[in-house]
Amino acid sequence: MLFSSLTFLFVFLPITLFLYYLSPKNWKNGILLILSILFFAWGGVSYTFLFIASIFINFFFAKQINRTKKSRKNWLIAGIATNVTLLVTFKYLTFFIGNINLLFFNLGASATLFPELKIMLPLGISFYTFHQMSMLWDIYRREDKIDLKLSECALYVAFFPQLIAGPIVRYKDIILQIQRRSESWELFTKGAERFIIGLAKKVIIANTMAALADEIFSFNPQELSASAVWLGTIAYTLQIYFDFSGYSDMAIGLANMFGFRLLENFNLPYTARSIQEFWRRWHISLSTWFRDYVYIPLGGNRSGSAKTYFNLSLVFILTGFWHGATWSFVFWGVFHGFFLIIERIGLAKLLSKYALIGWAYTMTVVMIGWIFFRIENFSTALEFIQQLFTAQTPEQIELIYFINSENILILIVGICFAAPIGLSWNTLLFEKFNIFIGRQVMLRQTLLLGLFLYAVMLINANSYNPFIYFKF
Questions:
Q1: Cα dist from 352 to 279, 296, 348, 416, whole Å
Q2: Catalytic: 323?
Q3: What stretches of 258-283 show up as alpha helix (H) in DSSP?
Q4: Residue 397, phi then psi, degrees to nearest 5
Q5: DSSP letters of 182-221?
Q6: What is the pLDDT of residues 230-253, one digit of tens each?
Q7: Among 131, 283, 323, 336, the one annotated catalytic
Q8: How far apart are CA 168 and CA 162, in angstroms?
């Protein structure tokens, strides 16, 4: 079920809020858990049983880690291995089998070594698997025993605002809120406002940019001029940011409406002046997850430069692979890892002296990287990148072919709200806005209501357009 669907906005969410606030305090977590599982089941009943089974299995491992002293590390390893096996089976097994068969075919094999499999990717498996590995790690790192309850662990994993596409919430950051929290009208209204802003990001900006990027990237690369490919790349750069940060805003806002406070997932990443800074601002919950649960346990930067570079390379190969089982995603991770390493070697010091050059370099690297992210066929992605720097010929389709008044307007709006020359939505609406109009709550709420109604009109008029990160 999409947050940006009429079913969610006018059926599921109102019913959930009604039942939650009408129920006694000791029922609230149960209400959220049941409705969160129904929310997940809406996207695919068949894999709901897998999801529920994974919760029970991980709770078993959590209990063993929490109960024992001598063998807790073995239970942690077993739990992590089980989760990785689950993820590999459903997300990567087809990829591995296909590449092994291709390798043996190129070596002269007359028949495929393994039968081809068609395994459908379960909704949200990357996110809820990472949530559960976080839970096992956090329980392992505690020296004292804690009172583990299945209902609380299940709600941590299944809580619908962050279930399908994040943010990746740490067990240690949320468990106390699951056990005891206080709702307030102030937090509820703050959450509703944040949700509307996220909805507007997705429906007004991301969807418009998606249509433009889809149109451009549907052509053969050689048919397009360099300016047209750059336009498509910029459109996708804006699409993925407003799509995913919009989802995160909606998730954080929904959590606020139920009394929860989730950590931020984006901090104007397109203002970064290095790739290191970009990853401190982009998908913060994922980058910090890999830092704390992979990079640091591997030794981080404590064992010399060579080991540090190896750890960084491995982390970003895994980061790319986490996003999808294609070589384009793997290369995207390697691509970012390469620039992180050369920045550590010395480029970062040079970039820090020239802010504008640092920003231009970062955005160029990020946008070229997004082409690998957008186009899953590796060779086709390379052709589009080559076209970015190819001289135009008369028969190629020019940029003007794809431009209309709506695209121009949304491009300008998107750039202003995402780039260094702009302001964040929250700053514009909730800080700068108040300077000019005073604290006129009604005027601000009228503006938000207008955004909401316009977004609903677009949802009603446009076709199905899921969030990009749903497929991860």
A1: 16, 26, 6, 23
A2: yes
A3: 275-281
A4: -75, 130
A5: ---HHHHHHHHHHHHHHHHIIIIIIHHHHHHHHHHHTS-G
A6: 999 999 999 999 999 999 999 999
A7: 323
A8: 7
Cα–Cα distance between 371 and 329 in angstroms, integer? Answer: 10
| Dist CA 239 CA 212 (whole Å) | 9
Q: Degrees (nearest 5) of the Cα angle 278, 284, 286? A: 115
Q: Which positions ≥6 away from 204 have C-beta within 8 Å?
A: 410, 451, 454, 455, 458
pLDDT of residue 470: 61
- The pLDDT value given to residue 110: 64
Domain boundaries, the chain: 6-180, 187-471
Residues composing the chain: 472
Q: How far apart are CA 163 and CA 165, in angstroms?
A: 6
Q: Specify the amino acid at residue 32.
A: L
Whether the CB-CB separation of 283 and 244 falls below 8 Å is answered with yes
Confidence category of residue 376, pLDDT binned at 50, 70, 90: confident
Strand-pair partners of 224: 397
Q: For the segment 52-111, what is each residue's pLDDT rounded down to a tens digit? A: 999 999 999 999 998 877 888 999 999 999 999 999 998 888 888 887 887 777 777 766
On whether the CB atoms of residues 122 and 47 are closer than 8 A, the answer is: yes
Q: Which of 79, 195, 202, 197 is nearest to 135 (CA)?
A: 79
What distance in Å separates the CA atoms of residue 264 and residue 167, rounded to the nearest whole number? Answer: 8
Asked whether 175 and 156 are in contact (CB, 8 A), the reply is yes
Q: Using a cut of 0.85, tell me whether the model's pTM lies above it.
A: yes
CA distance 105 to 107: 5
Which residue is listed with tokens 């503006």? 447
Residue type at 209 in one-letter notation: M
Buried/exposed code over 96-129 (b: 16+ C-beta within 10 A; e: otherwise): ebeeebeeeeeeeeeeeeeeeeeeebbbbbbbbb
Distance, CA of 212 to chain centre = 21
